[in-house]
Amino acid sequence: MSPKNDETSTNPLSRKLQKVLSLKLDQDPDLLVALKGLSGVVTTNNLRTRRNLRGDFERRSVDLSEELCQSFRHVNELVGKLDSEISQMGESCKAMTAELATSRKQMQGLLEKTTKIKRESATVEMKKEVVSSFIARYHVTHEQASLLKKSDSLHPDFFSTFNRVKTIHQDCKILLHSHQTTGLQIMEHMAMLQEQAFQTLYKWAQNECRHLTSDIPEPSSSLKEGFEMLAERDSLLSGALTELAKVRRAAVLRMFINALTRGGPGGNPKPIELSSHDPIRYGGDMLAWLHQTIASERDLLASFLHSKETVSLVLCEVTEGVSRTLKIRLEQIINNTEECITLLRISNIIRFYLSTIKPFLTEEAPLTLLIIELSGQCSKQFNRQIALYISRLCDKNELPGPELVPTEAFQEALHLLKVVLETHDVSVVPDSSPLNSMTDLLDVVISPILGLCSLSASQLDPVDSAVYLINLVSSLFNVLVTYENTDTKLALLQSKVDEEVETLTNLQYDHMIKTTGIPPLEMVNKDRLAVVATKLDQALCNTELLWLQQCTLLSALKYRNTVWRGACSQFVRVYDSLFKASCNEGVLLKSADQIAQLLK
Predict the structure, then answer these.
(1) Is 200 helix (H, G, I), strand (E, B) or coil?
(2) Which of 16, 42, 247, 575 has its CA 20 to 30 A from that of 461?
(3) Euclidean distance between CA atoms 310 and 49, whole angstroms
(4) Residue 193 and residue 477: Cα distance in Å, rounded?
(5) Which residues neighbour 581 within 8 Å (Cβ) at sequence distance 6 or greater?
(6) Is there a contact between 347 and 396 (Cβ–Cβ < 8 Å)?
(7) How many helices (H) and strands (E) in the chain?
């Protein structure tokens, strides 16, 4: 190191300069603040200013100290004034504390009394709430009670008040466990109000029912609720329903008479009586009107009555009014009708409307019993007319011609049977047992026709009678086989045909024996066998000689073949015995198999 550098490092001034020069003024905040303050004091930078800078700072420091002392002197005066005021406030607080202590002693009794009054007031308020709740639950006001006594008209709040009375009466049962006397008194009062309300409601309901006289009445909206409440008193409900049934019975009867004689409004639809010349339409129109009216009445009653059973019972009484009028007219139709088909159609109409009306009414309803009775009368009249018709055909005593085909009388009876079956087949009656219905109908018609067949056949010889009966019964069979539920009668007819076929087979066999001259076995000899052989050869050459002429008149080919096969079978069996006997006699005849083959 050089001597010059060592001198510089040991010189204090140099070190200070070096230190000052090494300072970074922009990074020293204190210095920056000092310089900023100095710039505000020193406005001009000259030699004089720099020389007096220290004195200026000292004077400025003295001035600031004097200002600070002046400020503290003012503060000291304020603090003294505040201290005196605080002392005064302390004295005032002591005085007030003394006065409060005196007042507390004086108000202690009042506070105790006030507290007691508050407790008593709370107790009274609680009792008031209890009493209010009790009254609200178990009490009816005078105005509410008066609503239950007006019988001319019901107030809109009648039903809500009535329900409240019933609720209170029910709640009193709970009250009896703790307050028996009070509970009994309230129950008696509520029971009295209920009875008054029931009487008021009963009179009102009767009055409302009396106004339901129009063709399409409009019951009040409260009537349904009224009948629901009356349901709690059977006697009152019965009285109201009786009045209702009486009014509607008269209204329905009036409407029925008007429909018969006047028709609808403006003559549309026309009066039903105008079609009295047509028994089917006349009876059908009356029953159709009745069915429509019953449906309308049921809807009317169901709009305010509470149960289906009640509706049915009232409807039975309502429809009873038209029973007599309906009975007179339908009996007149039935008794004055002689055509069997017309009677059957009327019977179907009656049974149809019986099936549609019956669900609306009870089993014992007068109208239901009447329609059942009329249906029975119509069936009896139909049976009588069938019997009379067949009887008239029998009175003709018509015998068949040589062709042994059905007579004209039988053809008429067969035509009647076809029309009857067609009428029954297209019937819309919802019969729960169609088999029984068809069987009953066939019993009425088939039995007289079979009697007619037997009567005609009884006047013929056995062969003609058998052929004729087979032709007649097979015609009947062919008619019945195209309809359902006729199996029972078909089996009966088939058995009768089979019986006559068997009879005719035996007669055909006798004819074959007679034609061929086959003798009994005990009378067989060579001479007789020679005659039999000759006749048999002639018959086999022309088998028509073996046929009964009447068998060719059988209308059904299958029965003709059945008779021939049965007779040939019997003939071959007898001939086989004869063939065995001829072998013993030394006569040569054709064998039974050969004869059977030739007879085919």
Answers:
(1) helix
(2) 575
(3) 130
(4) 79
(5) 521, 524
(6) no
(7) 22, 0
- Enter the pTM of the model: 0.64
Helix (H, G, I), strand (E, B) or coil at 15: helix
**How far apart are the C-alpha atoms of 554 and 508, rounded to whole Å?**
13
Yes or no: say if 393 and 451 are a contact pair by the CB < 8 Å rule. no
What is the rounded distance in angstroms from the CA atom of residue 507 to the CA atom of residue 512?
A: 9
Give the angle 488-489-492 at the CA atoms, nearest 5°: 95
Looking up tokens 């019977």, which residue turns up?
347
Beta-carbon contacts of residue 493 (< 8 Å; ≥ 6 apart)? 473, 476, 477, 480
Q: What is residue 320's DSSP assignment?
A: G
From first to last of its 600 residues, the chain has per-residue pLDDT tens of: 444 455 555 678 788 777 777 766 666 677 677 667 667 666 676 777 767 777 777 777 888 888 888 888 888 888 888 888 888 888 888 888 888 888 877 778 777 888 888 888 888 888 777 666 665 565 666 666 666 666 556 766 677 667 676 776 666 666 666 666 666 766 676 767 777 777 888 888 888 888 888 888 888 878 888 888 888 888 888 888 999 999 999 999 999 999 998 887 777 788 998 988 999 999 999 999 999 999 999 999 888 888 888 889 999 999 998 999 999 999 999 999 888 888 888 988 998 898 889 888 888 889 999 999 998 898 888 888 888 887 887 777 677 888 888 878 788 888 888 888 888 766 655 554 343 466 777 777 787 777 878 877 878 888 888 888 888 888 888 888 888 778 888 888 889 889 989 999 999 888 888 887 777 766 666 667 777 777 777 777 777 778 888 888 888 888 888 888 898 888 888 878 777 777 766 555 677 777 777 776
CA dihedral angle for residue 292, residue 297, residue 300, residue 302, rounded to 10 degrees: -100
Q: How far apart are CA 592 and CA 583, in angstroms?
A: 12
- 194 CB contacts (<8 Å, ≥6 apart)? 162, 165, 166, 169
